[in-house]
Amino acid sequence: MIGRVHRPTSLAALWPLLDDGARPMAGGTDLLTRGRGRSLGEVALLEGIAGLDGIVSEAGWLRIGATATHARVLRHPVVRERLAVLAQALTSLGSPLIRNMGTLGGNCITASPAGDTLPPLYALDALVELVSRDGARRLPVSEFLVAPGRTTLAPGEILAAFLVPLPPAGALHHFEKVGRRDALAIAVASLAALVVRDEAGQVTEARLAVGSLAPTVVRCREAEALLCGGRLDRETLLAAGQLIRKRISPINDIRATAAYRREVAGKLPLRLLTI
Ligand SMILES: Cc1cc2nc3c(=O)[nH]c(=O)nc-3n(C[C@H](O)[C@H](O)[C@H](O)COP(=O)(O)OP(=O)(O)OC[C@H]3O[C@@H](n4cnc5c(N)ncnc54)[C@H](O)[C@@H]3O)c2cc1C
């Protein structure tokens, strides 16, 4: 059940609605389905606020508005060419219907450990831009997400945009989602990887972020360090997988046991051999 629906057309009109307890709503694909039977109270739709859905290239960065739908982000040429790890995750998120309604901002605020866009945003070192009537602040997405369903968003604040530094051209991007079925699957485990190699094939930079294996996404710095300076061979990737296993704290739930998740987590880097 939903209470009164407001459709502000500016941030100035949004702030008093938030003060009065209205909840921001973007695509509604999480908010409306999680409400199930409970009253949602008043909601303030963000879709009518100009500028919140823009996708703009800035020097060395892509700024992605929080209310840009997954489908729009996926269509953007810079996302396809330079942020392929995000594009790959978006391709496996939900269904065309969900991708047309759901937004990058909504996926982030929901803060599910299984949120598909989160490991790529960690691997891309993305920042979030939060705005309130008092101004704007930016912080790494990894500092914004603190626990399942919990972020550091303050009362009266909304997520306005993601700022994504463009990785070097030619970097290897990979997103893998292990689920119980091919379509509309919630991740049992996922890996977002970004690897830069020199002309001799030696890894000069590696970023690995896993999802669904801990309360929040985990960046595996030890595994990243292990890959740097070497080659992406089977032995090294298995060793990186062992380090990932040490960093995670998977749970048993209806989709998989913790033991299965741990097993899969150690094997995920091997897929980098096939790209
Ligand atoms: C059938 C189905 C399949 C799905 N499959 C997947 C899947 O495969 N992978 C996956 O990751 N997710 C999946 N989802 C979850 C969901 O679609 C995504 O998380 C989506 O990105 C949520 O975005 P939204 O715009 O619909 O968020 P909303 O439902 O509008 O909002 C979600 C939460 O964020 C808040 N919010 C939204 N935007 C802002 C903002 N800019 N600032 C502050 N607060 C905000 C809302 O108040 C609410 O608390 C699925 C959902 C359904 C119903």
UniProtKB/TrEMBL annotation:
| Any one Pfam family match given in the protein's UniProt record, by short name | FAD_binding_5
Q: Which domain of life is it from?
A: Bacteria
Segments forming domain FAD-binding PCMH-type? 1-169
Cross-referenced SMART domains: CO_deh_flav_C
Q: Write one Gene Ontology MF term.
A: FAD binding
Q: Which PANTHER family match?
A: XANTHINE DEHYDROGENASE FAD-BINDING SUBUNIT XDHB-RELATED, XANTHINE DEHYDROGENASE SUBUNIT C-RELATED
Official protein name in the record:
Molybdopterin dehydrogenase
Organism this protein belongs to:
Solidesulfovibrio carbinolicus
